[in-house]
C-alpha cells in the first residue's frame, strides 16, 4: 500500500484530534532580539548586555514556507508524544512521510493526528496514549497523508 499526499484544498473534517488548520503568511518577518549569554537554570548570574542579533522563528521552524501550515491539536490521543490539547503544531507537506513520524492524515475524509507506522505493505496510525487503539489502514480505505509534524508549540 502506498501513501499519497492530499491536494491543498480539502474541507476540514476531523476525528477530534485536530481543532483547526491555519496557513502561513509568506514573507512576514517577525524577528526578536536574541542574547548571546546562556541562561542559568540554577542561581541567577549578573545580566550581560550582549545582544547577539535578531532571531526570526520562521527561519528556524519553517524551512519550507510554501509547504508549511499550522494545526491546533485537540484531545489527548498524542499526550505521550508531548502533544496536548490546544498545542500548535507546525506541519510541513514537503517532508517525506515515513515510519515513526507524526503526521496529519486524512482517513475517509476526516483529519487525524497520529504516528505513522508501516511494516511491509501494512499501514497503521498509532495514537500516543494507551487509552486509544491503533487504526489499521487497508487498501479499501480513503487514506492520504496531509503533512509531517515538525514542531509542537505549547505554553508551560
Structure description:
The protein has 156 residues and is mainly beta. It has two domains: 18-24 and 65-153, Umud Fragment, subunit A (Ribbon), CATH 2.10.109.10; 31-61, no CATH class. Helix content is 3%, strand content 40%. It is built from one helix and ten strands, in the order E-E-E-H-E-E-E-E-E-E-E. The protein has an eight-stranded antiparallel beta sheet with strand order 1-4-5-10-6-7-8-9, with no helix packed on it. The protein has a two-stranded antiparallel sheet with strand order 2-3. Strand 6 and strand 7 form a beta hairpin.
Number of helices: 1
CATH-derived topology of the largest domain: Umud Fragment, subunit A
* CATH superfamily descriptor of the largest domain: Umud Fragment, subunit A
Elements, N to C (H/E): EEEHEEEEEEE
Q: Mean pLDDT across all residues, rounded?
A: 81
What kind of sheet is the major sheet?
8 strands, antiparallel
As for the number of domains, it is 2
What is the alpha-carbon Rg in Å?
A: 18 Å
Low-confidence stretches: 1-12
CATH architectural grouping of the largest domain: Ribbon
Helical amount: under 10%
